[in-house]
Amino acid sequence: MVIFMSEIYRTFTSESVTQGHPDKVADIISDAILDAYMAQDKNSHVACETCVTTDFCMVFGEVTSTADISGDDIEKIIRDTIIEIGYDNPDLKFDGHKCEVVNRLHAQSPDINQGVNREDAETGAGDQGMMFGYATNETDSLMPFPIDLARKLTNKLTELRESGKIPYLRPDGKAQVSVNYDEKGNVTSLDAIVLSTQHDETMSDNQEQLKEDIREKLFKAVVPEGLITEKTVEHINPTGKFEIGGPHGDAGLTGRKIIVDTYGGYARHGGGAFSGKDCTKVDRSACYMARYIAKNIVASGLAEKCEIQLSYAIGVAEPTSVMVDTFGTGANIGDKTFDEIVRENFKLTPDGIIETLGLRDVQYKQTAKYGHFGIEGLPWEKMDKTGDLKKYII
Q1: Is 200 annotated as catalytic?
Q2: Is residue 242 among the annotated active site residues?
Q3: Is 283 in the active site?
Q4: Is 184 a catalytic residue?
Q5: For the chain, which domains are there?
Q6: pLDDT by residue for the chain (394 residues), tens digit each?
């Protein structure tokens, strides 16, 4: 729901990054390794972290699995993933063909495993913590508009690079949008738009051409007409050039883009990262479930916006708490509470979440590349519970 008006009540900023950003490179590698284990053993327990820097990649963490994956297999997955992202040239100082690869994955602690795997009871949560999910009716995807737009910009930037439509682009890039809202919560305009994109040496002294290409082929293709006004501040490669980037320009680590991965700061975050973690890790699966619940609540008309908090104790199946906040936009549900409605309609144990969302059959690398929420086709984006929830509206 985007309405262009002149009055500005507040401004909110979100950012996104391309898959060539060093932290995203690490996320994608971690999820590629997770996918490899899950493909052979759907009950694999994986907690894979990745770090990258100049011509170097190391994976480390814990795995319990019956999958037959050797050290050579891990190295091939890493190299193939780096090349797929676009780092396939020694000039980038991070080349999937030749960079050093170190593997420090080892077996999971039996102390954790005994709490998660129980033959006579439901699977326990793979960690303690609190997880949030959010939905709002201000976009068709039921995502906050700022992160929705920022992600569309970075995904389109990657598409322009991979298709060759802007041939000088390199993999690293970021987008940031500052969105103006009126007093009723409608989007009015962009206060600022920031786009930084890595490029080859031919454009270091030709930034005006780069800026024109970005305006014509990216901004006009993605930003809704009328949002960029004469008052919008525009920054394209504000440092002057962006030739050195990726893991050579800045070290990357799994889990450093948790706000990019969720709601762009628009909703709260429990602090846990997603990539490289299997679905028994509630840091990941419970956030997906919380988004699923929030989205169905908003799609059903029970609320215009909704935030869900779930919390868990390690080794314990049932959540220790459930909180629903509709920010005063909730429908009349009589004597019922939103917490009760959630518990009545959604399975909140790790096993229940995995079953409901089919999390043992998801290809997780796609979420690290294109976004975890608001992406059509992901199981937690389904709106199949709206019929069950509408009956509570009085």
Answers
A1: no
A2: yes
A3: yes
A4: no
A5: 10-16+145-244 (3.30.300.10), 129-136+282-390 (3.30.300.10)
A6: 555 545 789 999 999 999 999 999 999 999 999 999 999 999 999 999 999 999 999 999 999 999 999 999 999 999 999 999 999 999 999 999 999 999 999 987 665 555 555 555 688 887 889 999 999 999 999 999 999 999 999 999 999 999 999 999 999 999 999 999 999 999 999 999 999 999 999 999 999 999 999 999 999 999 999 999 999 999 999 999 999 999 999 999 999 999 999 999 999 999 999 999 999 999 999 999 999 999 999 999 999 999 999 999 998 999 999 999 999 999 999 999 999 999 999 999 999 999 999 999 999 999 999 999 999 999 999 999 999 999 999 9
Residue 23 known to be catalytic: yes
**Interstrand relation of 233-236 and 187-199 (parallel, antiparallel or unpaired):** parallel
Q: Is 183 a catalytic residue?
A: no
CA 161, CA 391: separation in Å to the nearest integer? 48
Tell me, yes or no, if 225 is annotated catalytic: no
Active-site residue, 257 included: yes
Are 269 and 259 a contacting pair, CB within 8 Å? yes
Among candidate residues 24, 45, 79, 248, the one labeled active-site is 24
Q: Is 156 a catalytic residue?
A: no
Secondary structure percentages of the chain, helix, strand, coil, to 5: 35, 25, 40
Are the C-beta atoms of residues 186 and 5 closer than 8 Å to each other?
A: yes
Residues 104 and 59: their CA atoms lie apart, in Å, by: 6
Q: Which of 45, 170, 257, 365 is catalytic?
A: 257
pTM tops 0.90: yes
Find the catalytic residue in 23, 27, 307, 325: 23
